[in-house]
Amino acid sequence: MRSQRLDSIKEYIYQQKTVTLDQLCDEFNVSKNTIRRDIDELVASEKIKKIYGGVTVEGYKPMISFDERNISNLQSKQLIAKSAAALINDNEIIFIDSGTTTMHMIDYIKDKKNLTILTNSIEVIMRSIPYPNINVISLSGSLNRKTLSFTGTSCAAVLSNFNISKAFIAATGISTNGGASNSSPAETEIKRTALLKSQKNYLLVDHTKFGIISLMTFSNFDNIDSVITDKMPPEDLQEVLERNNCSISVVG
User: Fold this and answer.
1) Which of 34, 74, 150, 249 is 20 to 30 A from 228, comparing alpha carbons?
2) This prediction's pTM
3) Mean pLDDT of 66-85
4) Are residues 27 and 101 in the same domain?
5) What is the domain extent for residue 39?
6) Contact status, residue 184 vs residue 208, Cβ threshold 8 Å
7) How much of the chain exceeds pLDDT 70, in percent?
8) Do 98 and 212 share a domain, yes or no?
């Protein structure tokens, strides 16, 4: 029945985030004319919009290069990193995620004593080199030049062997429907593992990530203790965070 097909198409689009008309035709074994009619109906009632040659979930944001992300909203990212760093104590074992916000944390923890950092971020490793008081454990994996990080199944496997005091996680987007999401599938399992192994979990995002649904959800908010950000999230996102006992820390 058509109603069942529409439900299946909707679910497929929400899972894939962005799909072409050809993909939908192949997946559901229907003609392009049929798919176009189905898409027209879904666009009218769902958070789905047309793009050239296909459709995407509204708010979905694809990954851009590390250099482009690093330039964007730099001052806010530094303030968020400083606030996150204030939560770290001497002698702790922490995980610092790869990202253009988390990497700035090193500037504010360089005087900590006997600190151990687990990371897959090349930037975090490089920034830590001048400080012998910081013990750095690099996760194994393949180099992802777009994120300047090591990724792969071996990365998560190595991380799973450690007990972590606090994890500081980056995200491409946070939203009521998509939770905390990320543009790089190769990094998703690393983030999930860090959240599972850590006693306290912190999500570091600036306001440009609000309402964004990226490629893969790596966590709902019930496994995150606090969101550290530069502006208060929209009301609907605030409600979801509060319902999951996830506090909001706004830097200023």
Assistant:
1) 150
2) 0.74
3) 78
4) no
5) 2-57
6) no
7) 94
8) yes
